[in-house]
Amino acid sequence: MGCLLKQGGGLYPRLRIGAVLLAAGDGRRMGGVAKPLIRLQGVPLISRQLVALSGAGVDEVVVVTGYARRAVEDEVRSFVVTLAHNEAHADGQQGSVRVGLSALSGPFDAVIVMPVDLPLIGASDLTELIGAFKKRPSGHVLVPFVNGERGNPVILDDTAFARILGSDTNLGCRHLIEREPELVCPYATANSRFVTDLDTTDDVDRLVRRTGWRLELPELEPAR
C-alpha cells in the first residue's frame, strides 16, 4: 500500500469537500430492514449521518437512495442535500457509489464516501479523517484501519474520483482499493467507530449490549 499514516498535528488549508451518503441497500443480511431508517436513541441513522457531515464542514452531500426510496427521501427533506436514486440498487453498492459521485456538482478537493450503517460516527470522527487526508504523504484513497481491520468511510481525491467514474466496469471504492492498492493511503487509528457497522441483527444486538442505547428497527418494506 502507498503509505502508512498515524495521528499527529499540523495546520493545513481548508479543503472543499463533497460527500456521498450510501442509503440504497435493501438490508438483505438483516432480513429486509431499511438500514437508513433504523432509529438509535430515537434518531434515524440517516439523520445522524447528515448531522455529522454538516458538523464536519462538508460543502455538498448527495444521498443515494434505492430500497425504501420514498421513506428514506421523506426522512431527509429537512436537510439541504441532493437526492440521487439508484434504480439498480439490488446489484450492489458499487453502482450506488458511481450514481452518487456523478450527482456531485464539484469540483472538490476530497469526497467522503460513507455507508449509512455506521451508527456511532459523528462530526469529530469525520474531522479526524479529513485531517488525516490533508496530512497523507501519498495515495489517492484514505482508508481507516483499526487493528488491521479496514473501516469506513473512505476519502477520495480527484484522481480516485475520476478513476471510478471513468472506468468502463462497475468499479466501486472497495474494488478500486483491492485492485489498485498503490492508490491507497491506510490510516492507522484506534477509533473503533470506523469499524462499527450494522450488517446483521446480531450487530444490532451487540451494539445494544455495548452501549445500552435503544435501537429500533423499521417495519419491513412490503414485498414487490
**Which shape, going by the Cα principal axes?**
globular
Distance between the termini: 44 Å
The CATH H-level superfamily is Spore Coat Polysaccharide Biosynthesis Protein SpsA, Chain A
The name CATH uses for the topology is Spore Coat Polysaccharide Biosynthesis Protein SpsA, Chain A
What's the pLDDT, averaged over the residues? 90
Give the total of domains.
1
Largest sheet: 8 strands, mixed
Strand element count: 11
- What CATH first level would be assigned? Alpha Beta
Would you tell me the structural class of the helices and strands? alpha/beta
Provide the succession of SSEs: EEEHEHEHEHEEEHHEHE
- How much β-strand is present in the residues? 15-25%
Secondary structure layout:
Blueprint lengths: L16 E7 L15 E2 L2 E2 H11 L4 E6 L3 H7 L6 E4 L7 H11 L6 E6 L7 H13 L5 E6 L2 E2 L3 E3 L1 H9 L6 H7 L4 E5 L12 H11 L3 E2 L8
Parallel strand pairs: 1-4, 1-6, 4-5, 7-10
Antiparallel strand pairs: 2-3, 2-11, 6-9, 7-8, 7-9
Descriptive tags:
224 residues; alpha/beta; Spore Coat Polysaccharide Biosynthesis Protein SpsA, Chain A; three-stranded antiparallel beta sheet; globular
Overall description:
The protein is of the alpha/beta class and 224 residues long. The protein has a single domain, classed as Alpha-Beta Complex (Spore Coat Polysaccharide Biosynthesis Protein SpsA, Chain A). 31% of the residues lie in helices and 20% in strands. It has seven helices and eleven strands. The strands form two sheets. Strands 1, 4, 5, 6, 7, 8, 9 and 10 form an eight-stranded mixed sheet that branches. β4 (60-65), α2 and β5 form a beta-alpha-beta unit. The protein starts with 16 loop residues before the first strand and ends in an 8-residue tail after the last strand. Mean pLDDT is 90; it is low at 5-9.
